[in-house]
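Obj: model holo form, ligand = zinc ion.
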Amino acid sequence: MITCNELRLKDKIDTFATFGALGNGGITRLSLSPAALAARDEFCKRCKALGMEIKRDDMANIYATLKGEEDIPAIIMGSHMDSVVQGGNYDGILGVLTALEAAETIVTEKIPHRHPITVVVWTNEEGARFDPAMMSSGVIAGKFDKELMLESKDREGITFKEALEDSGYMGEITNRLNAKDYMALVELHVEQGPVLEAEKKDIGIVEGVVGMVNYEFTITGQADHAGTTPMKYRKDALFAACNIIRYLHDELDKLDSKLVYTTGRMNVSPNIHTVIPDLVKFTLDVRHQDPTVINQAIEIIKRVPEEVDRCSVSYKELWSRKTVAFCKEFIDFVEKNANEYGYSSMRMYSGPGHDAQYIADMIPTTMIFVPSQNGHSHCEKEFTPLHNCFKGTNVLLQTILDIDRI
Ligand SMILES: [Zn+2]
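Output (holo structure tokens):
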């Protein structure tokens, strides 16, 4: 079977790791920052050298296209180049570089293809500079209002609109990905979790993105002096919050073992070591692929009493997302190709969100995961061994070629 070039892939990974490098093995490459623009320039230079035609849309998403034998809708692959602060060299960028390597293999090996083949770079996936995450794919898919997005500000007060206009990468609205000109999307991404490595699998066959709900609890007690108030009179909001979290864990653990839930944020007021806390707010993020299990989790949340440890309790849903199912035919291609290359693989759902989940509403879509060493991601330790990147690229290439024959 045809394979990509491992050394050429290494060169891509090493080169792009310099854009935003901090000297600690990772990068800070915030969306549309000078480092991100330098990476975009290098990407475009390499695409042009391969004879690809480059277009940009109004959200500065880049589409680099290899002409097909026929004038029919294109197959698209790629990911994002922006990172979080002190992020790694694999999240997002590996999806772009493996797509570029797959395209380069098609060119150098003169592999015939009917459909145009496009490599996409999405703008502002991380949301680390401009909130929200997956902004540009979301605008294209109609999930976000563009005018509101343009007003999103970074910490320096620069709006997304200003950054977009200054970037030199803003293009035409008519160049956006759409269901008429594109027929399939495949995004390769690092797993960002420990499962593939622990299960000793090379390839994650991604069936979809798990649904989630995010709730915020508010516990209201009474602030009093830590030295004078007997325990039995206290209305300690933090103590009540602890008991609620314990209850939630005990009950949620009784549901399916694939359910994951997290209290990642807690604000304690007044947060003074000599004062009994009177107000605690904490979040509960719950994720599972099956909506029935999510609903069971919501039932558990609803059973939290209005009063706990003499404190009043309320909660509200901050946001939610439905499970996204990817294209069955493409999922099967990924599995078949992993098998044919002799790579180990497993089917799984993505816990994190990705651009592909929005595009899945517009055109048939799937994703390919490769392992993250020790499960690390969104940090400088993020690492995927080269041979795993290479295997992922081969499966990506073959999957694109399979789709080309549909
Ligand atoms: Zn990513």
